[in-house]
User: Fold these one by one.
Assistant:
Number 1:
Amino acid sequence: MDMDFLSVVDAKKEEIIQLADTVWDNAETAFKEYRSSAALIAYLKKNDFEIEKNIGGLPTAFIATWGTGHPEIGFIAEYDAISDLSQIEGIAEQKKDPARVHGHACGHHLYCAGAVAAALAVQAYLKKSGKKGSVKVLGCPGEEGSFGKAYMARTGIFRSLDAAMGGHPGCMWAVRTRPSLACCSILYKFDGRASHAGATPHLGRSALDAVELMNVAVNFLREHIPYDNRVHYAITDAGGNAPNVVQPHAEVMYMMRANDNAALNSLCKRVHKCAEGAAHATETTFSSDFHSACSNIITIPTLQKNLYKAMASLPLPVPDEEDVAFGKELAKTIVDRDDKEPLYPGELLPLPDVITPHFGSTDTGDVSWNCPTVQMHVGSWITGTPGHSWQTVAQGKTNYAHNAMLYAGKALALAAAQLFEDPQLLAQAKKEHFEKTGGIYEPAMPPDVMPHL
């Protein structure tokens, strides 16, 4: 295939880098990415994309489209930052940036700008080839624990896509092949009756006792749930700081994970019974507030092989002297980093023969239930960099990170162009998708739940 269309990424290199840096500079958290989404929308408009806003009732969600008809390929763009992870760029010591509170500790500024780069290249491909089809940028807010794509998916916005792709920053070059777990978060609120804990404890009904009893019940439950289920909790309101008062109110946040949405629903019901039992035993009342949920990822081998082929066709970025010097200093700050590893990820990891699931969760799962989906690991950081750390923020605007982002844009665009060139690839991907989903998507997110801002 003639790869000349990828040259648009080089031609617009400085603009794309500036777009990524603008999102980094703004560093806005879930569902508050007003300046970041506005910058992305403005740049896509400038490049003749049509914009649809307020997707799924989310003010910072958008879909940008160029072209008409099918094939219809979408590139996932995330742009939310991590709260309270401010960090000055380009220095090898932890130091908050006085200009901002939050930080791009998951590299979403590179994620979204890489998606834009890919879309521009596919736009150039379609113009040059004259082939029918359309390319979209899927502007997805609130990935970090808020599962923005799940709200968008409920509207059916991803159903029309023939394929969706994304490139998430990390410490390796690879195709992401492992399925994830479905996940939900529910806040349990218990109410009892206050009383003097010394003089009249018999008149009180402790909401904190109910929270603790629920936690004990769930901990006993762990022995009797499937091995790949996960249950986490945090006491978010212990009822105050006075031990001589019977606490009349207490709250605990639960996060549950399971293999798929059906298993998650079953697990949630069992945890809910623990809350009911705790309330009954302590003579308190309780209510539950469903916060968020996402589906498990459906993997599509045909798309994974196609993306791997595209990645292998392009030279990986090489750090310059400045990147190496900075990387060496930063590596000294990373506890337990294996010094035998290369400083920067320098090779494309092969597709694994055996796919093992991981026990994390992502709202990309909701995209994957609606259309064939594939993602890549983008080696944007020095090896061993912990995710969601000040070190990731510090590396966000290096030359190497920028070049990794541009590589990702090209690789995604090349993989997408191959889908336009070979209709059989898409047909096989859709076949695999139907075999795994049955064409049915039942959201883990209830229809009446909206984000807790």
Note: The mean pLDDT is 96.
Number 2:
Amino acid sequence: MNKSIALLPLLALIALPVSAQQQYPQRAIRMVVGFPAGGPTDIVSRLMAPKMAEALGQQVIVDNRGGAGGMIATEQVAKAAPDGYTILMGTIGGVAVAMSLNPNRGYDTLRDLAPITQSVTVTSILVTHPSVPAKNVKELLALARAKPGSLNYGSSGNGTITHLAGELLKYMGKVSITHVPYKGGSPALTALVSGEVDLTYENSLIITPHIKSGRVKALAVTGAKRSALFPDLPTIAETLPGYSASGWYGLLAPAAVPKPIIARLHAEAVKALRVPDVIDKLSSQGAEPVGNTPEEFTAFVRSEIEKWAKLVKAANMRTD
């Protein structure tokens, strides 16, 4: 028998996975979001999903799986079939902070997930209910010191950026403020507007209209530099030097997803982040598109895990 003919079946078997990857996707892709609809993570996901769907030729369905500060969604994707049809819009909480804050989380970010790209970085703002008699961070700290434990702050869940921002302020400012976790940014914001909590560290994607309407009072931004959206608003670092707590979102897939599929998802996600109307909508609400490489995002995730593990230990953080 001709040797080349004998090799044909073997070559066909080898070629099958490559062919299947080249035809990806052949059905809808599920983008899992760890928070309820209407929150900032959901907003970014719903901006990107239709743009990616258009380029991929298949639906990208946003699937909200709220709870445990994003850990439920993160674990679900970490344990999903590695075929590229289930991806995560991950957040600092479920992806990075959970590694040190929640030893029973059920997954290991660096082992079980494949970073695709960081989608955005987001400005967070320290806001209070109008009834709180503090006009700036210095006055807020003075109020907290005068009445330890009397103030409370709402967060979008344990281990989220709002939780981290609050614990970092308490640790650096040496004050006692009670943490009240909610199931997402929207419920935490509702609690603040109604006066159920005194303050929170809310994402600019959903808090901006409420600041402009006067329903909440903005004191400072949590990032290392002032926000272009609110240039007159100081940073917390201007009162507590070295303070910095910025949120971010990024796409990840199960770790064993083939690299060609990761590359395709990366390419279309980055294209979505470069669409002018997406850029305009994000920047007008204090979010900055990123779109880095899988390797760059992996290195960033690793650095975030290390960074926040230090705060978790130093501040003796726990889930409430």
Note: Confidence is low (pLDDT under 50) at residues 1-16.
Number 3:
Amino acid sequence: MIKRKKSVAYCLLFCLLTGGMAFYELRYSLLQEESKVEERVANTSILLGEWIKGAFVASDYILRDIVYRVPVSALQFPATNADEYARISKLIEDKYKTLPHAIGVGLNDKNCIMTHTPSIIGFDARQREWCRVPMHNPDIQTYVSNMFASNIGELMVIQTRKFPGDEFSGLAGIGVDLEFFSTWLEKVMIGTHGVLAITDQNVNLLARKPAKPEMLGKNVNDPIVKAFITSSENYKTFRKISPLDKEPRLYGIRKIEGLPFVVVVGEADRDWQAAWMLHVWLTIGALVILWVLAFYTLHIYWERLSNLVELKKVRDELEDLSLTDALTGLANRRCFNNVLDVECHRMRRLKAPISLIMIDVDFFKAFNDTYGHLAGDECLKLVAGVLQSKLKRPQDLAARYGGEEFCCILPETEHAGAVRIAMSMKDGIADLGIQHEGSAIENHLTVSIGVATVICDEDMNSDIIVNLADERLYQAKKNGRNQVASED
């Protein structure tokens, strides 16, 4: 039972250790995978930011070309020189055609009045952000606005550049529609359930992938993005469940340097965790197999343990049979000889006496001939019971020596004490009252007993005391049986 409890404890400990190791490995691999996603989101936001920034740098070169080729004196409304107006209008139209997604190129005078434009000539743009900010900030030479709706309802942003000079003398501007931003998003691969977005600093949505046209130009009411825009941070990661599609994602948001735009990159948990989840199931499967093998091994161990217990039981029974007399239950002669040798050796060390009582059932052959062998067997069992009952100490041994002969070993017993025990045995057997008409002494069963006691020394061995007891038993028989012989 103890071995079984220990084996169960070891098996459970093994399962706990392997389970803990598997959990740690899965947790570590999840953190590693999440770290890769964070790096990927950051790199994607950098890439988008650099593309957009590069596009505005390229368009600024066109604005530079315009402001250096158009004289400030031509910025008049209404125009006073039709030929010059036509030349400049053609110039800016040619430049406009070189810019994909440009809505148009326009010029404003020092009062922000539109002098050249594909839209409305003479429009006062002083309240427009793209004109108002550079007009009142001498240090700003080029400026990109947040998204706004034009006079004809188009959603756009405008990039402007001042005409050269110490004083504000006018500016050139390029209108860019929102398709410009969507184009860059389409170049980026994102997971099936991922999202890419670009907003301005007013948190107005400029582009989104996957596309949601109905949301373009609308304010994104996201407190995290709003707080980020007003903070000094340039990049931030966070986890969030999208209010639009209820998809949990890992997001990275980045401000585009020098531009009023924010790039948002979100990878869905179920996309980037898909490979990890496969790893989880494989690990769980391997762990379950390992646990099943562990418990199967435990089962096999228990079976073998049970077999060993049974085998030990059988061996013990065989050993008992080899040392026990099958009829009387007393020790057999083999056991008697072994114990006597051991006790003689022990008494020799202690220099103590050892006594031996040898008993023989009187006229037992006649008893068998008269009453039969079955009755004889029962008789021997009863005699054995009396002998065993008279031995009170655990170190004393009663044995069937052979046939109707019995021997008793009494270590550390003086001769007088051994004689008293022998007399008690004789009387106890007589008191059984077993009928024996073939007895020449009484009409019941009797025994003859020989008692020998020696002090063990170097010259003493077990044969000496056995021979001495046997001689005294012979003396008891010679003197008429039913008696104890203890002296030569």
Note: The domain at 1-58+178-316 is CATH 3.30.450.20 (Beta-Lactamase).
